[in-house]
Amino acid sequence: MSMKIQAEDRSTHTKSQLRQLRNKGFVPGSVSNKDKPTISIMVDEKQLLQLVNRHSHEIIEIESPELGSQSVVLKEVQRDKIIPNKLLHVDFNQINMDEPIKTLIRIEFVGEALGMKEGGMRQIVMNDIEVRALPKHLPSSIEVDISQLAIGDKIIVEDIQMPANVECLSDATAVVATILHVQKVSEEEVNEMTEEAKDEGLKDNSGAKLVETT
Question: Whole-model pTM?
Answer without folding.
Answer: 0.69
